[in-house]
Design a protein that fits this description.
Length: 95
């Protein structure tokens, strides 16, 4: 799951981004989003797209069809190195 998104919202964002990459930047319609995320409800698809817009992940251009612009793509933060684990220290001979 991407940070700041529910699993379902992340699924919608991944589909929209993949569709745009595969179709030369053209955004999917709500019907195509329904097919792509395997839902029958256009209302559910529209709601999730709206939530992505509300939270600032996408921007929809007014009065235009297929006008979804991805503003930010959340990712899991990466940390340098590997975890350090505590190793017990013993002085003297081992028994």
């Amino acid at each position: 799951m991407m940070l700041g998104l529910t699993a379902q919202q992340a699924k919608y964002l991944r589909f929209i981004r993949g569709y745009q990459l595969a179709h030369g930047g053209t955004s999917p319609s709500i019907s195509e989003i329904c097919k792509g995320v395997d839902t029958r409800s256009r209302g559910t698809a529209a709601y999730n797209v709206k939530q992505l817009e509300v939270f600032g992940f996408i921007r929809r251009l007014p009065n235009r069809n297929r006008a979804i612009e991805i503003v930010k793509i959340p990712s899991v933060p990466s940390f340098a190195g590997v975890p350090l684990y505590s190793v017990p220290y013993h002085e003297g001979p081992f028994a």
